[in-house]
Amino acid sequence: MKIICIFLCCLALWACQEEKPVVQEFRRYKGDIEVLNSCDINGAANKMTTYLRQHGFDVVSKSNDVLQNYKETILVLRNPEWEGAQALAKALKTKNVMVVASKRATAIDASIYLGKDFNKIIEGEQGEQK
């Protein structure tokens, strides 16, 4: 009988413990990114900007590119020593990465030229969250 009472007391204490909330890691990457719509799809730069900001990247400018015929998204690193470069390539799910070495100082660490595949980048993650 004592064993049953002890078991029931332990069970009651275990059931009363508070559940600890699941903490999702959110990391911010220092560095400035520009997003260029190069795919001729209205709103592409806005959607990608929202996606990147949700992933901790600082998008400082967005606009339409002169060329509007890119099939695939391209990441151009203007500062190859930027700490967020690999994380950005991973977030974009691309191997299309170019490094542009310039003696001229630039305020932008990375430029993203959006291709027609940009929706797959964004939707892939949204589908995983459902």
Brief summary of the model shown:
By secondary structure, this protein is α/β, with parallel strands linked by helices. Helices cover 35% and strands 22% of the residues.
First and last CA, distance: 48 Å
- Tell me the structural class: alpha/beta
* Count of individual beta strands: 5
Net shape: elongated
Our Rg estimate from Cα atoms comes to 23 Å
Overall pLDDT level: 81
The run of helices and strands is HEHEEHEEH
Helix content: 25-40%
Fraction of residues in β-strands: 15-25%
Which sequence of strands runs across the widest sheet? 2-1-5-3-4
Main sheet attributes: strand count, strand direction, barrel closure:
5 strands, mixed
Number of separate helices = 4
The low-pLDDT segments are 126-130
Q: Keyphrases for this structure?
A:
130 residues; 35% helix; elongated; 5-stranded mixed β-sheet; alpha/beta
Tell me about this structure.
About 35% of the residues lie in helices and about 20% in strands. It is α/β, with parallel strands linked by helices and about 130 residues long. The protein has a five-stranded mixed sheet, with helices on one face. The longest helix is centred in the N-terminal third of the chain and has 15 residues, at about 1-15. Residues about 125-130 have low confidence and may be disordered.
List the helices and strands and how they pair.
Layout: H1 2-16, E1 29-37, H2 44-54, E2 57-64, E3 74-77, H3 85-92, E4 97-99, E5 110-114, H4 118-129
Parallel strand pairs: 1-2, 1-5, 3-4
Antiparallel strand pairs: 3-5
